[in-house]
Amino acid sequence: MDALLVVDYQNDFVSGSLGSEAAAGIEDALAQRVEKALAEGEDVIFTKDTHGPGYGGTNEGRHIPTEHCMKGTPGWEIYGKLRPLSERCTVIEKGTFGSDRLFEMMRRRGYSRVEICGVATNICVIVNAALVRTALPDADILVDPALVASYDGKLGREALDVMKGFCIDVLPSE
């Protein structure tokens, strides 16, 4: 069975406090990919970065002192065209970069192929790619550079190179 994992495509990472033009620029392609996956019967899983009161006192909050993805706020919601699509999918809230719930789901479902997309390539995408690789050591895992974005293009490209190092198939850029 195949799965599509959409990482943190939320308002705060697209148009909000940690947004970027690069993230906004992949909206149409992401929506088309999710629609295709749903039509073909793939499991589609969205992650949602989720924070609450006390964020500033967490390890992440001390390193990334910008409040974002506060549960129940507009910034926490899935962005744009992806929001209605996400309502037909599994959505996993996660309190930090990776998700133990996602790891367990991947391991339990035993996917043979997982495609990972979303934001930010050099933070949550790479961390969740490592999680999926750990949960599914023999699965084909791929990332299409046209379906990921980072607020820092150089770090995003470097993250793709690092993912290649742990056997993630990074598709050729167009």
Secondary-structure topology with pairs:
Layout: E1 2-7, H1 11-14, H2 21-24, H3 27-39, E2 43-49, H4 59-63, H5 82-86, E3 90-94, H6 100-109, E4 113-119, H7 121-135, E5 140-149, H8 153-165, E6 169-170
Question: Nutshell version of this structure?
Answer:
This protein is α/β, with parallel strands linked by helices. The chain contains eight helices and six strands.
Distance between the termini: 27 Å
Low-pLDDT ranges: none
Order of helices and strands: EHHHEHHEHEHEHE
CATH class: Alpha Beta
Beta percentage is 15-25%
The main pleated sheet reads as: 6 strands, parallel
Strand line-up in the sheet with most strands: 3-2-1-4-5-6
Which percent bin holds the helix content? 25-40%
The helix tally amounts to 8
**Quaternary structure type:** single chain
Number of strands: 6
- Structural class, please? alpha/beta
Q: What do we call the CATH homologous superfamily?
A: Isochorismatase-like
Mean of pLDDT: 95
Per the CATH scheme, the topology name is: Rossmann fold
Tell me the overall shape.
globular
| Known CATH architecture | 3-Layer(aba) Sandwich
Q: How many domains?
A: 1
Alpha carbon gyration radius: 15 Å
Offer a few descriptive terms.
about 170 residues, alpha/beta, Rossmann fold, about 20% strand
Q: Could you characterize what this model shows?
A:
- The chain has 174 residues and is of the alpha/beta class.
- It has one domain (2-170): 3-Layer(aba) Sandwich (Rossmann fold), CATH 3.40.50.850.
- It has helices spanning 11-14, 21-24, 27-39, 59-63, 82-86, 100-109, 121-135, 153-165; strands at 2-7, 43-49, 90-94, 113-119, 140-149, 169-170.
- Strands 3-2-1-4-5-6 form a six-stranded parallel beta sheet, sandwiched between helices.
- Strand 4, helix 7 and strand 5 (140-149) form a beta-alpha-beta unit.
- The longest helix is centred in the C-terminal third of the chain and has 15 residues, at 121-135.
- It is globular and about 40 Å long.
- The two termini are 27 Å apart.
- The relative contact order is 0.20.
- The mean pLDDT is 95.
